[in-house]
Amino acid sequence: MVLTYREFVLTLRDDPTYTPGSADNAQQYDREYCLVKEYRVVSKYGLVCRERNGAIHTCILLAAGGGSRVHEHSAELVQGRTSG
Questions:
Q1: Model pTM score
Q2: Closest among 37, 39, 13 to 26, alpha carbons compared
């Protein structure tokens, strides 16, 4: 999923092989955000933010699945409006 907002291009991609805290991941991220504490992480999404000036920022979003999965009926919310 690719979103463009002002000077930013955001790319969200499934990264199912990512292992939290491992240095051996194929993709390394600047930050890791775990949205669950008591459940096993099953949803793993890499987010890449590119700015028009060339700066790139990355993070991995970790969640427990279910409603956190991105699928064909997913929608994004930008300034109070949805699409998708």
A1: 0.73
A2: 13
